[in-house]
Amino acid sequence: MRAAVLHETGQEKLEVLDDVEAVGFGPGKVRIRVRAAGLCHSDVSAMSGVLPQPAPFVPGHEGAGEVLDVGDGVTTLKPGDRVVMCWLPACGACASCRRGQTQLCLAGFLNAGTPNFRRPGGDVFGFAGTGTFTEEVVVDAGCAVPVPDDVPFDIAALIGCGVTTGLGAAINTARVEAGSSVAVIGCGGVGISAVQGARLQGAAQIVAVDPVPSRREAALRFGATEAVAPDALADAKQRITAGEGFDYVFEVVGRSATARTAYDTTRRGGTLCVVGAGAMDDQLRLNMFELFFDEKRILPSLYGGGDVLRSYERAITLWRAGRIDLAGMITHRVRLAEINDALEQMRTGEALRTCVEIR
Fold first, then answer.
1. In whole angstroms, what is the distance from residue 61 CA to residue 59 CA?
2. Distance from C-alpha of 84 to C-alpha of 51, rounded to nearest angstrom
3. C-alpha triplet 123, 102, 149: angle, nearest 5°
């Protein structure tokens, strides 16, 4: 079967091969025919080494498709079911799950160290335990979440990560209050979802911040009241908040420099929500006096900061009701053979979200 493979960390391009085999099928597993995959910035970060991932590997962790086969002991799925892939499934038994913080369950991360593909030259891993830039993949049953048949594969794929992460940051983690002021730094797919989440929560002002003009224009369509380039953020802070700072600021880039800007843009007593996934050696510097004196809440948000399955259901309900726009987030479509075009579209900021259509 075909799959896009990164041979070594640091390479900028993927190679689409037809000698890849999905392996690991057995008890507790499901085999999925991938129909659509979304390209998320975390895929690019794993390719560059910013996020840890054994290589060689098949990138992609946003995906949707249909179940081809189920292993022994799998009772919640059957062949033909339409599913969205969850790269961070909850085991239901660990301390985090028992506390109700299922998004902190480490079971999914352990999957990343087990190869689920093979080539004649050896094992191949799937990014984040999944690997959706492929025609078929074998995953734990918990990674395959059924979705209704009226949810298109491309929409379901977006819900698998970017939409859930951005909406959840605003709704679950920051709990944006009605009438508040919000700034979102970084307006790719996750940032746009955070904009939509803030709008749903009733924020009065939502300032989208991004260096790419097309993304700023898109943010206005999705609910931002204003969109500015990074060098105009200080002026927006002065105009909108009289220099005090925004009630909520979302950092959706994953870099210490933008996190520092986000902190400085948050009002005293306000909330900085860190959504971007950054590198382990990128240190955010705060002095102990400002940390104490400003009393700003710093809230990291992993995968939307809440129960993932509930978040999927909520996103589908909101989409059906027309309260969030998911189809409009897909600005580009490519076939698997054109995956490197999609990578370039993301790196340049041309694409808001690219759907990889897999036949």
1. 7
2. 23
3. 75
